[in-house]
Amino acid sequence: MSTIQTAAVIGAGVIGNGWIARLLLNGVNVNVFDPSPEAPKHAAKVISNAERAYANLLSVALPHKGQLSFKSSVAEASANADIIIEAVPERLDIKQSVYLEIESSASTEAIIASSTSGILPTELQVELEHPERMMVAHPFNPVYLLPLAEMVGGEKTSAAAIEKASDMLESIGMFPLHIKKEIPAFIADRLLESVWREALWLVNDGIATTEEIDDAIRYGFGLRWAQMGLFETYRLAGGEAGMRHFISQFGPCLEWPWTHLMDVPEFTEELVDKVSNQSDEQSGAHSIRALEQKRDDNLVDILKVLKDNRWGAGNTLQTFEERLTENTAEINFEALDLNQPIETYTTIVPQKWADYNGHMNETHYLECFSNAADKIMAIVGVDKKYIAKGNSFFTVETHIRHLDEVLVGEGVRVSTQVISGGGKKLQVFHFLYHQDGRLLATGEQMLIHVNLESRAACNPNELVIDRIAAVSSAHQNLVAPDGVGRAVAQKL
Amino acid sequence: MSTIQTAAVIGAGVIGNGWIARLLLNGVNVNVFDPSPEAPKHAAKVISNAERAYANLLSVALPHKGQLSFKSSVAEASANADIIIEAVPERLDIKQSVYLEIESSASTEAIIASSTSGILPTELQVELEHPERMMVAHPFNPVYLLPLAEMVGGEKTSAAAIEKASDMLESIGMFPLHIKKEIPAFIADRLLESVWREALWLVNDGIATTEEIDDAIRYGFGLRWAQMGLFETYRLAGGEAGMRHFISQFGPCLEWPWTHLMDVPEFTEELVDKVSNQSDEQSGAHSIRALEQKRDDNLVDILKVLKDNRWGAGNTLQTFEERLTENTAEINFEALDLNQPIETYTTIVPQKWADYNGHMNETHYLECFSNAADKIMAIVGVDKKYIAKGNSFFTVETHIRHLDEVLVGEGVRVSTQVISGGGKKLQVFHFLYHQDGRLLATGEQMLIHVNLESRAACNPNELVIDRIAAVSSAHQNLVAPDGVGRAVAQKL
What we know:
16 helices; alpha/beta; 8-stranded mixed β-sheet; Thiol Ester Dehydrase, Chain A; 42% helix; homodimer; 492 residues
């Protein structure tokens, strides 16, 4: 499976920066060329948005962040890159001149991928010396969150190059969709363009405002399309009789005046004003950055529920996390410092962890401790592979003391001390700290090793027993934590 | 605010049944006419889907389910209804004859609402005696989950009738969107029709299959549209410069061949076959019912995360739940039986509560106890109103014993015993039971009454003190629960 060590991104606008963020956070080194002196500043903002989103999106650790370097020319950025991503303005002449400069320094093996929304790859690759490795990889904003990349080859693109590039994008958590016939604007932007034109007619003719149109989407069919798309949704609208019934019922509408799209609205200054002003009225109260964060929060949570439901884009996230887990260096038990509690969990408190009291709800204190216990289990050898073989630890008892509060957006971390361990039992004590150092809570837990078939307690394997013994005996030398062995309502 | 006591639904297909389910579960009595002898069977399936979805969707209780009656004529169904919803086939002549029969028995005050996807209300109401109360209320499948209803009046519809009908739909959790100018197919179906035509072209011309088109939507822009719609999404694609930049950049595309829609694909038998066969290939492995449940699970979870994020369709759900809470009879403290633990929480374990061990994760045991504690607080007078005035209870300590397991889809309930209470303190003991009677876990908690301004402990008001004293002294007579006062790892 092809992965990416070094990537080049040519053009650091909204799309280029999205690529940069996704690549960097996946451990890829990224060389960038953009003529604007403001480019590093804008890139930093998008990377920070992406870091915020990934902290909430992923339940597993990302690799170490790649190195970001701004280069002074297209050629300099393209040298040594495994893939060169072009995200410059939508003009054929500009794009073609960029490719010439890319080829002046790039390896002949390097993939060249255009982010164009609609220009045919056959036209793009016309002047290339090695056109077989050039294609369209059309992503969607925000590139660091949306999995789709439309992969479109031109007449001279090789099948092997499409496959290699698709592997590369899968390795950074994307869903490459190979479109087998070239057509301007490919699939998604053809659908989008038809909606966009219809929507402009509705605004132009004063039927509806931009806000009413957005509401007609996001309170209705937009919710369906996040998971099923057009045809599968309509299959259900056909009832038990499915798609054939639906299409027979609604086919005749093709003859009806249900869209304006036998024609294109004229692109006048007046229409631009109308749309821009209505959009200001609709969304102007929020800054672009605030809207971006809201969008990202929503996308992250939608992707996560789709993952929990094993569906659609959630499957891509699931595969991505599994790959990250595989790629994560095995826990190096020998290198752990056992002379202090072990760092077991860190996160930033998301909005949905807040309750009506305005702080992190008690449920999520236990969520932090539960994740910390999972980490301790993995450290002593009870990782996903071990569990897949039919044994695990179950929590049988927990005691939590709430000592202080934490608000949304603040960072927390957990460190864990092993109180005792041996045979089937593992007793741990978690400390939940605020990023400012305050101790927020403690959690004491008794875990019992079980057979997942019989659901009965049993002894772990030798490696696990040895590791628990090692941690447990080292942690005997630590100070007994305040509150260990405490019962609810016990006098101090 | 207008609410609905009794509704009539004429036509029990996919849309009619969706209306029936939403109305019934909101406590409305529904009289139905449909000529098919199979109608009650099909309705029962949709109602069962809706009950399953609502159990997971709502964090508050629904009112008692309404009464469903199948009637033998349109006239009989329409008598005594506050609103008569027409969901018969999309033919003007059929719809008009239904309206005549509705008017033969309906109150002149009753709202008549058509579910048409595109016929103009002015045409629909032409022959009515009281056309001022007739309009389009166009819902989206599944009607019991998607909040949108496009409200469109005809030339003779009164503004008061639109407002009354909108209030009625809001009272059953919907988002009525008033479309102020009549146009065939209104807003949403014009957008959908333009996408549908473009998608049919893509299939017709062999550019993409139904599955590839669905994937191009649901791995990409569909995820955006669930929350922001078209214009707000594009505002962000414009970067800091917003909509004006976006539209100036992409306006010229209107001249480009980025959609086929200067023309309509011919609706041939061959195209019907192609679409139906591809759809079978794509989705045929799942039954329609399985797909419906998957769709509902996804929609429920997407609506819930949007609620948590205070955004879009989540705001409608939030308002709906607040209304349900208001309408729930005040807790009648005097009527509580204090000779036993108090029933405080009940739910069905959702998929996402499961962990890699295949059972409900420990975090959600505490979530159940936390919800139970909220209920106890509300019972002793610390409800939303009380908290809004600046005081609440915070949990300071929790002890959980895990005694048995529970799997996804199984029911659980919590009952709670007050161990002690007085002054700032409230000590409770929760029992989590499986629907089959097994005790799954116990949770002991110490809550402290605090001032939300100073975050310091303080005494509750007199009513709260009196109620805590009453429950606490009654519960002194109960047997002390097994495990009360226990510490982690304490010997039995």
